[in-house]
Amino acid sequence: MGAINNPNFEEKRSKFIGDLRSKGRSEATVIAYAKDIEQLLNFFSKEGCTTIEDTSIEDLEKYKQSLQDNNYTPKSISRKINSTRTFYRYLIDNSIISDNPSEKLSHPKFETKPPRVLTEMEYRALRDVSRIDIRLYSIVEVLLQTGIRIGELAALSLEDIRKSKDGKIDYLYIKAAGSHPFRKVPLNKSAKKAIDDYLEVRPETEDDTLFVTKNGRPLLVRNIRTAIDKVMVLA
């Protein structure tokens, strides 16, 4: 994670991240929040804000406009607004600020399209093209064979790969999140093999997130989406 020059801002971001971890949020989620809030606070610094207590809805609107000016998609801006609101709620809950300007910050409008069902040919092509990379193939195979959400896949840890008494992979344990309860997701033979193959080449790291980068850091939702979009073009 990057640094924030303003010590006042950095202290509050660090405590916010610590609060997320204490609540059991996945490392991928924590990293995503940390990057979003780092971007927000660095923007405030450039605008001359010195304390979070002095920020206003006008400052947040300027931040939102800067994202639009830098060609962020409405969906990405909406996600960053959610991160901002979570950060400000933390500040309110811990009596760091008395007013929450983020409540007045509106989301950009964007069209939510229903998921498109792959044709049988697209399904086969996607699997074939993704075989060029063991990690990517494992990701694609798990998504196709189980139907879990990309966010759920990104949040998987090594301990969520549950095994039977003989030591072989049995099923995925999907943790509860928001209004979604925990559940056990069965794996077919091809998904189990794809995970096994990936685990053999997974980089050694202290992080227990299942899917990680070459440097051992959690693979974020946006990284996964980008990788899948690239192979969809080739498929």
UniProtKB/TrEMBL annotation:
InterPro entries: CB, DNA_brk_join_enz, Integrase-like_cat_sf, Integrase_catalytic, Integrase_recombinase_N, Integrase_SAM-like_N, Tyrosine_recombinase_XerCD
Core-binding (CB) domain: residues covered: 7-92
Gene Ontology molecular function terms on file: DNA binding
GO biological process, one term: DNA integration
Pfam family, one: Phage_int_SAM_1
PROSITE patterns, per the entry: CB (PS51900), TYR_RECOMBINASE (PS51898)
Ranges where the Tyr recombinase domain occurs: 113-235
Superkingdom per UniProt: Bacteria
SUPFAM superfamilies, per database record: DNA breaking-rejoining enzymes
Entry keyword set: DNA integration, DNA recombination, DNA-binding
PANTHER family, per the entry: PHAGE INTEGRASE-RELATED, TYROSINE RECOMBINASE XERC
Protein's recorded name: Site-specific tyrosine recombinase XerC, integrase/recombinase XerC
Natural source organism: candidate division WS6 bacterium GW2011_GWC1_36_11
Gene name, Swiss-Prot/TrEMBL: xerC
